[in-house]
């Protein structure tokens, strides 16, 4: 191990694995270590026995739940936007050859006590029971504006500079009511709270366009895709990629200690008495706890069920977003459901997650609005975990630390963190102008 590397990556969470892959493809010499004996870190995938061990001590899972190895329960479950940044990264690195994706059946929003399909186009807006007849017409006009909007063609801007006009001002121009704004902002643009209303509208318009373009990519009912066998496949696919380009992987390395020189710059990592030298370290917050601060907490429930989430048109995989306003909360709540159709559970079994940014210390009570929508559950587990973000100055210490995973059930915010870190580490922006059809073979 006593060699010198350009970068040492600590932790095999998804963010760290993507970066390890990208940096290896760039020709850097990468060593990737993890204190655990499995891939994935916080974002690992567990079989039923591992799930039981984690949440119930040493219990044996009940036989009626089926075979343990038929379960691949993701600890940080997130759907992938079909045209989003993560798919572009997968294609850019050619990782798609190691993965098989399948479209997600449904995308829903909670409104006035009921679950509704998210309308994403002018035609769907006209059919949606979310709005009355006059509101539908106004929404249709708004959707047509968004669909036609082209940043480089001022003729499509209708006299508005969306880098200056706020989202609230744009929406006011179309006279949309608060109810409509709620599902557009949270279920289409995927904002996590209402701050976006006071920010320039361009970001929101781009997010809605991404949603509808992703939806159009499949004939399915959602803009999302998900790997067969769950997200645990992703870190391993990037690990393979890194190895192809000469990266070295070491699992089960206890006490990875980051070493610094007298100026506070990183010089290497020590484990089991051996030190590997390096110029830069990339890691998750758990490896450098004195360089991060706690910024919040996620509360979540994991349920095993024998049916889909109720009122989701029998979707075998679905996301339901519960906007904060509908629940009188400060941030949204998310339902995620996947099943044997994505090979994450035995036939007839469904895995559902309910997650939110915690506002109390009582996940069972706090998550109740989401859990009530699931219907009867066979088993349910609760937990909370803290969220951290880096407070160091990477230009001074050469440590590049990822932020903890948030409560959302989609990947867009995760990839933003990865791309920002890539730019900080390499000084360049990753080119994501790729041929999106390259992933289509894997999506069948």
Report the span from N to C terminus: 42 Å
Cα Rg: 22 Å
Count of individual helical segments = 14
Query: Largest sheet, if any?
Result: 7 strands, mixed
Overall geometric form: globular
The number of E-state strands comes to 19
The percentage of residues in β strands lies in: 15-25%
Query: Helical percent range?
Result: 25-40%
Uncertain residue ranges:
none
Mean pLDDT: 91
Helix-strand makeup class: alpha/beta
Topology diagram in text:
Layout: E1 4-10, H1 14-25, E2 30-33, E3 45-46, H2 48-56, E4 73-74, E5 80-81, H3 85-92, E6 101-103, E7 106-111, E8 114-117, H4 122-127, H5 133-148, H6 167-174, H7 178-188, H8 201-217, E9 224-227, H9 233-244, E10 248-250, E11 257-260, E12 266-271, E13 274-283, E14 292-305, E15 318-322, H10 324-327, E16 333-339, E17 350-357, H11 363-366, H12 368-374, E18 379-390, H13 394-397, E19 399-401, H14 412-426
Parallel strand pairs: 1-2, 1-13, 2-10, 7-15, 13-19
Antiparallel strand pairs: 3-4, 5-9, 6-9, 7-8, 11-12, 12-13, 14-17, 14-18, 15-16, 16-17
Task: Describe it.
The protein is of the alpha/beta class. The protein is built from 14 helices and 19 strands. It has helices at residues 14-25, 48-56, 85-92, 122-127, 133-148, 167-174, 178-188, 201-217, 233-244, 324-327, 363-366, 368-374, 394-397, 412-426; strands at residues 4-10, 30-33, 45-46, 73-74, 80-81, 101-103, 106-111, 114-117, 224-227, 248-250, 257-260, 266-271, 274-283, 292-305, 318-322, 333-339, 350-357, 379-390, 399-401. It is globular, with a radius of gyration of 22 Å. The two termini are 42 Å apart. The relative contact order is 0.20. Belongs to the Rab GDI family. InterPro entries: FAD/NAD-bd_sf, GDP_dissociation_inhibitor, RabGDI. Pfam families: GDI.
């Amino acid at each position: 191990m006593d060699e010198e590397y350009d970068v040492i990556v600590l932790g095999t969470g998804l963010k760290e694995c993507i970066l390890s892959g990208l940096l290896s493809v760039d020709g850097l010499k990468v060593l990737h270590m993890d204190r655990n004996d499995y891939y994935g870190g916080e974002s690992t995938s567990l079989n039923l026995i591992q799930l039981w061990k984690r949440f119930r001590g040493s219990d044996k899972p009940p036989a009626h739940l089926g075979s343990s190895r038929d379960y691949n329960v993701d600890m940080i479950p997130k759907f992938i936007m079909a045209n989003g940044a993560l798919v572009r990264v997968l294609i850019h690195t050619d990782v798609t050859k190691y993965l098989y994706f399948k479209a997600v059946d449904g995308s829903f929003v909670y409104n006035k006590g009921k679950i509704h399909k998210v309308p994403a186009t002018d035609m769907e807006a006209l059919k949606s029971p979310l709005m009355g007849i006059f509101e539908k017409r106004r929404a249709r006009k708004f959707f047509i504006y968004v669909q036609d909007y082209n940043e480089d063609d001022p003729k499509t801007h209708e006299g508005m500079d969306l880098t200056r006009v706020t989202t609230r001002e744009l929406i006011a121009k179309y006279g949309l009511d608060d109810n409509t704004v709620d599902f557009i902002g949270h279920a289409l643009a995927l904002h996590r709270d209402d701050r976006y209303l006071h920010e320039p509208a361009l970001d929101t318009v781009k997010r809605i366009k991404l949603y509808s373009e992703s939806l159009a990519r499949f004939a399915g009912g959602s803009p999302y895709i998900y790997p067969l066998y769950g997200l645990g496949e992703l870190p391993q696919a990037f690990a393979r990629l890194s190895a192809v380009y000469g990266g070295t992987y070491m699992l089960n390395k206890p006490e990875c200690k980051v070493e610094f020189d007298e100026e506070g710059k990183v010089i290497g990592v020590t484990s089991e008495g051996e030190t590997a030298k390096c110029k830069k370290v990339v890691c998750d917050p758990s490896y450098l706890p004195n360089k991060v601060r706690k910024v919040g907490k996620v509360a979540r429930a994991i349920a095993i069920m024998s049916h889909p989430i109720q009122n989701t048109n029998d979707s075998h995989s679905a996301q339901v977003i519960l906007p904060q306003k509908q629940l009188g909360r400060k941030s949204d709540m998310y339902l995620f459901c996947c099943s044997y159709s994505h090979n994450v559970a035995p036939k007839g079994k469904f895995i559902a997650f309910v997650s939110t940014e915690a506002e109390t210390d009582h996940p069972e009570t706090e998550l109740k609005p989401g859990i009530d929508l699931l219907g009867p559950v066979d088993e349910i587990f609760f937990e909370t975990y803290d969220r951290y973000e880096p407070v160091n100055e990477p230009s001074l210490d050469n440590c590049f630390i990822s932020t903890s995973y948030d409560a959302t059930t989609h990947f867009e915010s995760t990839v933003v963190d990865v791309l920002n870190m890539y730019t900080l580490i390499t000084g360049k922006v990753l080119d994501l102008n790729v041929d999106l059809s390259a992933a289509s073979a894997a999506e069948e």
